[in-house]
Prior knowledge:
Blueprint (H helix, E strand, L loop, with lengths): L16 H24 E2 L2 E2 L8 H39 L12 H15 L3 H27 L6 H25 L2 H11 L10 H13 L3 H7 L3 H6 L4 H23 L5 H12 L4 H25 L8 H21 L1
Antiparallel strand pairs: 1-2
Amino acid sequence: MNDRRPAQTSTWPLRSSRSRGLFVAGLLLLLAVTFAASLVFSEAGPIWAIPFDDTDALQTEWSILYQLRLPRTLNAFGVGGLLALSGVLMQVLLRNPLADPYVLGVSGGASVGALLGLLLTGSIWVVYVSAFAGAWLVIALVFIFALRGYGTDLAGSANWLLTGVAVAAFSGALSSLLLALAPEGVLRGMILWLLGDLSSGLWFPPVFILLLSLLVTWPMARRLNVMGLGSEIAHSLGLNAERMRLQIYMLSALMTAFAVTSAGLVGFLGLIIPHALRLVVTNDHRWLIPASVLAGANLLILSDMVARLLLAPQQLPVGVVTSLIGAPMFLYLLSKRGR
């Protein structure tokens, strides 16, 4: 007697364009809610708790909202989207769904530059410029050494990975040296920057760079799908895999550089978001790119709210919150991937 049981079909990942569109629309609606909540809730309580007949209190609250919370929320939106989008590209570049945007050492170069700027001057503009210069230096080094390793063939993901790991380790050693040499008055600011800090973000750059990155990356979605199949298949389909791999690396590295320069080191976000959405939504980058950007922005805005409000008036580094959330999620995804 044959015991035939009906096959169990999973609803994940989403299989129809309609369900994927609804999922992205839900992420967009959630982003509107989290963005508004980040503006409304402060360390002193929600904005509606302020007496409306107290003109001085209302003016003070409006000033804080306009000058502090709005730029910080915009910074979280831009940085979260940039890290998630960079993670999508990095996973295609290395053909590894567990790749991280920090894996090629760009964050390490930015960290060395930022710490050096804090140590020498402390000016926020010097920190921005030096952090971005350090990231660019690492981008150039990784590219040069990866190119030397494969000649004109840039298809070898192992060489990119090994070069990035080596440069990241060297950058980490330099960062530790700068921390050891820093005086007491500067050391706390340097450590807070390394742990993630959204409070010093400028008004527009992260969001502006995110929009530009989307305009460049989204039209590449079909080619990214082909690249995910491997370099040989990409060649057989008429795609220049070497040039495409170089474009992916440069875009991902630049987005990571802007994100790290604007907010310091925010861990796990660029790893968790793309990998989780590949499992839940799709591997099709036409949907994965917008979904990752929206989910990354949502997660970082929520993490920033937790960092501001959990132990108010004391604020936690946002990078600590994302790591506390990301590490258990990462272990869960690993176990799910194993099954």
